Amino acid sequence: MNALDPTARHHTCNARPLILGSTSRYRKELLSRLHLDFDTVAPDVDESPRSGEAPDRLAVRLALAKARDVASRNPEAVVIGSDQVADLAGNPLGKPGTHERATAQLKSMSGQTVIFQTAVAVVCAATGYERIELAPVKVVFRSLSDEEIESYLRAEQPYDCAGSAKSEGLGIALLDRIDNDDPTALIGLPLIRTARMLREAGIRLLPATQTD
Description:
Elements: E1 18-20, H1 25-32, E2 39-40, H2 55-73, E3 78-88, E4 91-93, H3 99-109, E5 113-124, E6 129-141, H4 146-156, E7 175-179, H5 191-200
Parallel strand pairs: 1-2, 1-3
Antiparallel strand pairs: 3-4, 3-5, 5-6, 6-7
């Protein structure tokens, strides 16, 4: 369970446990902003793209697969699954993993518009609730010099981030513009959409209004 501020615990009285089907520290931090008690469980899902699979379809498929996998092992829980794929002219860009691949990704995105396709799914096996939403984020990268790319990667080492840049950190200096309708989607979990689906699944995010 997350260690939350005791003053916020009245927000978290829900009949069903909540599980984040992810080990991402970014998604864990984002979900913690909703002041909910939750566990994290690693999904067992092959994240390899299928031949010819579009980036948005890949993100949707993986988010739902992650939520379903964890829900199958925790049928009474409400489970969140999410995935993000950077879409460069229809080509999927995942987590680089290494400095060399991150350098290649940023060089390919220099001066380009990239759509970060972030999908989130909520599943509860016991009730049959299942829904998925896609939150595309349009990001315009500046024209980047080799020196800027090297300096950024050495400073932030974003090798576990799709697209090799952390917009919540120094990576914002690589960008000209961000267009989206769910502010946390680019970090990895679109909280507006997530909150909406959690309410539908029966998770109460805010305490009931007290009346005299």
